[in-house]
Amino acid sequence: MTETRLLPFGAAPVPTSGAEVESRVTALLATLAQPGVGGLGGVRTAAEVDGADIPSLRVDASGVTVDDQRLTAVRPAAPSVDVVHRVPGSVRRLEVVAHPASVRGVPAEVDVSASDVRFDWVVGADDQLYVEVREPSDAEPVVGTARIAVAHRDLVAAVRTVLAAVLQDKGFTLTALDLDLQNRGPRALAVRADAKVQRSFLRAGVTVTASASIDRSLVLEVGDVTISSSNPIVEGFIGPFRSKVAAEANRTIDLAAQLPAGVTVSDVSIAAGDDVVISVTFGQPAG
């Protein structure tokens, strides 16, 4: 008996039509549902089949919602399967789109594409078919692109919700917030947040500025963090915390070090405008 992490894909043998693959992908997604994820029932798929390969698979996840406060960290139990045989296959072109998906109430436009995603069709002694996606490696790396776009107004609304909760805990009410993001190159941003706060009869403005950049090696740097207020009373509240805030906020994070083998980033960019857009290129796609 061999235990592997296999995804159930209906009865054997391997599907011979795109329609079969589409219906089985829909059924598979239903098994992956968990508290905190909604809208999986509305996911649409389109597939083509060529023998053991899938020349194209498109998954449209528009309308899916994710609330990570309710997501469980426990992975679904993997089926225990007595493997009879395997048939290698690949998805020559995989597309995952969501126009939009919603993450904690923030709508995001998502476009992900990958090429030559390798997997095995696995037939068990129970005459059921399973799919086992191969882990990427240096020999078989992930090659593709990802693009995530969030409307500036939606980003401001999300920041306002979080900041209002933090200030409320300190006895302040957030009455207004303006967030300005300006590009300082293809991978760098200048950030300025102007907030209006109130506490009893006290009203004041607070300004936070910072810079953020990410290089081709996927090293994220956040720095030049300042916090100030035009109101001397509020400035007095801020003073003791200014150095602590700067120490916490000014940091360098090597995001590439957190990627698994076979996943390398060849380019990344951030664009700020009516939308805030992050684009990432994985591997070295041809052309």
Q: What does this 3D model show about the protein?
A:
This protein has three helices and 18 strands. The chain has helices spanning 18-31, 152-169, 232-249, and strands at 2-3, 7-11, 37-38, 44-47, 57-60, 65-66, 80-81, 83-103, 106-124, 128-133, 144-151, 173-183, 188-199, 202-214, 219-229, 251-254, 265-272, 275-282. The protein is α+β, with helices and mostly antiparallel strands. The mean pLDDT is 85. β8 (83-103) and β9 (106-124) form a beta hairpin.
Topology summary:
Blueprint: E1 2-3, E2 7-11, H1 18-31, E3 37-38, E4 44-47, E5 57-60, E6 65-66, E7 80-81, E8 83-103, E9 106-124, E10 128-133, E11 144-151, H2 152-169, E12 173-183, E13 188-199, E14 202-214, E15 219-229, H3 232-249, E16 251-254, E17 265-272, E18 275-282
Parallel strand pairs: 5-8, 6-8
Antiparallel strand pairs: 1-7, 2-10, 3-6, 4-5, 8-9, 9-10, 9-11, 11-18, 12-13, 13-14, 14-15, 15-16, 17-18
Structure characteristics:
single chain; 287 residues; alpha+beta; eleven-stranded mixed β-sheet; five-stranded antiparallel β-sheet; 3 helices; 17% helix; 49% strand
Low-pLDDT windows of residues: none
Give the terminus-to-terminus CA distance: 45 Å
Strand portion, in percent? over 45%
Helix/strand order: EEHEEEEEEEEEHEEEEHEEE
Structural class: alpha+beta
What is the number of E strands?
18
Q: What is the averaged pLDDT score?
A: 85
Question: What's the total helix number?
Answer: 3
Portion of residues within helices: 10-25%
Radius of gyration: 24 Å
What spatial form do the alpha-carbon principal axes imply?
elongated
